[in-house]
Amino acid sequence: MSGWLLIIFLLLLGGLISSFGDLLGAKIGKARFSIFKLRPRKTATLITIITGSLISASSISLILLVNSQLRVGLFRLGDLQKKLQDSRKLLLSLKLERETLEDKITKKERELTKLERNVIALRSGKVVISSGQSIFIAEIDTDKKLKVDSQMQNIIKNANRFTQEQVIPKVKEPRSILLLRKNHIDELKKTIKNGGDWVINIKSVRNVLEGENYVYAFPELIENKIIVLKDEIISKTSLINKENNIKDIGNTINLLLASSLAEVKRRGSLINEIKLKSDSVKKLKVFIEKNKGFDFEFEVVSLRESKTAQPIIVELKVSKLLS
Fold first, then answer.
1. Is the pTM of this model over 0.70?
2. What pairs with residue 275 in β-bridges?
3. What local confidence, expressed as pLDDT, does residue 316 receive?
4. Is 75's pLDDT higher than 60?
């Protein structure tokens, strides 16, 4: 039923009931009828009140009968408000989760874009410094005469010059290309001033392409400890082969040197290669030529004591394995 029809029907119904009430009240008044021992006039008034109540009750009943929305709103309003409040809370929670998810997606997209750029750069051969690569390594002098602040300034200056030579070699005038966070440097200074023997390892935060204007880096403080002792055997292996051809010997030496590098790195060394004594291989070849047909034992021996950031110099020693 439309709204206008409902209103017209209610007006007609109200008029009909009120007319009937007035007529009934008049008749009761004339008949001097009494209810509940009331006077006839008060009885007529009571009848009029009852008639008005009937008008209201019939109007409300009719509206509720034909209008489901009003019926629901009148009897279930509290439940609906509670559900609406719960729905709003759930919607707010979902909105926050959506924002968090969108932030993660945005972050991943940026990482993917960065990775794609790095892959393209790697394929084109323009990366001069890789992400996580050590740019500059320096020992901190623990002599109290040398102030930590001045040492740090010199280290950062030298690291900046070295970085500039790698990234923009064509630019000769000095530029501040290396970017380090001040709070990282301050934290390092506090640790150094507390004592100890330290090495600073300045590492690149991301891949750096040739020609870039800035290089973001992170300073890492590492304990400067003894990695190998003088005359220490770092690694050794045996070659059991009666023919002892050059290829087998060369492979054995390469594997032995790689094993030695892995061992010193495991101990904490920052070097990327082991330096072999210049005449070591020559002496080895002479020894093998004189002792063909024997099995050999090869040893990588340290020629000096080396700390965390110091180069490791070794020589190859070979001896016969007696059966």
1. no
2. 313
3. 87
4. no
Q: How confident is the model at residue 263 (pLDDT cuts 50, 70, 90)?
A: very high
pLDDT tens digits for range 46-56: 666 776 666 66
Tokens linked to 266? 């495991």
CA atoms within 13 Å, Cβ hemisphere of 216: 5
- Confirm if 44 and 25 have CB atoms less than 8 A apart: yes
In the block, residue with structure tokens 């190998």: 228
| Distances from the Cα of 216 to the Cα of 69, 111, 154, 228, angstroms | 65, 16, 18, 33
Is the sign of the CA dihedral 286, 290, 292, 295 positive or negative? negative
How much of the chain exceeds pLDDT 90, in percent?
17
Structure tokens at 195: 């004592």
The one-letter code for the residue type at 207 is N
Task: DSSP letter for 321, please.
Answer: E
- Go through the chain and tell me how many residues it has: 323
| Strands 208-209 vs 226-228: parallel, antiparallel or unpaired | unpaired
Instruction: State the Cα–Cα distance between residues 68 and 99, nearest whole angstrom.
Output: 39
Q: How many CB atoms lie within 10 A of CB 47?
A: 20
Tokens 């010199």 — which residue? 154
- Which sequence spans correspond to the domains of the chain? 3-75, 128-224, 227-321
Rounded CA-CA distance 268/48 in Å is 104
Q: What is the predicted pLDDT for the residue at 231?
A: 92
Q: Which two tokens stand for residue 262?
A: 């892995």
Q: CB-side exposure of 237: number of CA atoms within 13 Å? A: 17
CA distance 127 to 123: 9
Contact (Cβ atoms closer than 8 angstroms) between residue 131 and residue 206: yes
φ, ψ at 163 (rounded to 5°):
-65, -40
pLDDT of residue 262: 92
Cβ neighbours, 10 Å, residue 249: 19
